[in-house]
Amino acid sequence: MDEFDACMRKLSSITESDELALASTRHELDILCSKWKMGHRCVDEHMSRCSDRLKQILYNDVVHGTRQVMNELCSPGRMQNDYLRLAPCFKSLFVEGGKCSQKYKNMIQWSKASTDMTEAANVEEGLRRTCCTFNEYVHCYYVHMPELCGEEGRDFFRTYTEKMSGPLIHEHCASYTYDSTCSQGASTAAPGATLTAARGLFGATVAACMVAAALL
């Protein structure tokens, strides 16, 4: 797993830097996009050599929307222009003291922790917490976006967040986010066998979504 962990570090390094994770200028966005492409290429190459077909399908399903969003965001055009215009407002929500700053920190913390868990019970709890914190982060944006960024910011965020994280929230995290599990101290919902078995794989998909989520 050393090679896979190295790929993960390339992706997670983006969210460890506020200048990149909170990219709000064209220069910062260019740097982020370069690191994003390197990290994702690393994961793709590793999985094509070392993962079975089922894990590859699972991973590609979860990150398909994220790839689309990041490809649009990293290419000159309307989405990139709209994002750069709205970025200062998005950024204000989760910089230190922002209304969603703690949700963002929680998401980063648990997405990293889930990739280091190997025992089944710990993996299950890590996945539950990761799903729940990701969902709470997105919900915080939905609540506060209109008042701070107006209708344009709200519509932009809704369109691209749904495209980016739809499979993660509605399919792979459904057993956690659509019942009372997220409010419980311990997980009672059993994740799918493929999620439990794929140590680190889910962390990679969350890291991918996390990079795009940090921008939006």
Provide key terms for this protein.
single chain; 216 residues; 10 helices; globular
Give your account of this protein's structure.
With 216 residues, the protein is mainly α. It has one domain (2-215). Helices cover 80% and strands 0% of the residues. The chain has helices at 2-16, 18-21, 26-50, 53-73, 78-94, 101-114, 120-172, 174-177, 193-197, 201-215. α4 packs across α7 (120-172), α4 (53-73) packs parallel to α10 and α6 (101-114) crosses α7. The longest helix is centred in the last third of the chain and has 53 residues, at 120-172. It is globular. Residues 185-205 and 211-216 have low confidence and may be disordered.
Instruction: Please state roughly what percent of the residues sit in beta strands, choosing from under 5%, 5-15%, 15-25%, 25-35%, 35-45% or over 45%.
Output: under 5%
* Alpha plus pi helix count: 10
Radius of gyration from CA coordinates = 16 Å
Low-confidence stretches: 185-205, 211-216
Helix-and-strand structural type: mainly alpha
The dominant shape is globular
Along the chain, the helix and strand elements come as HHHHHHHHHH
SS elements, strand count: 0
- Provide the helix percentage: over 70%
First and last CA, distance: 31 Å
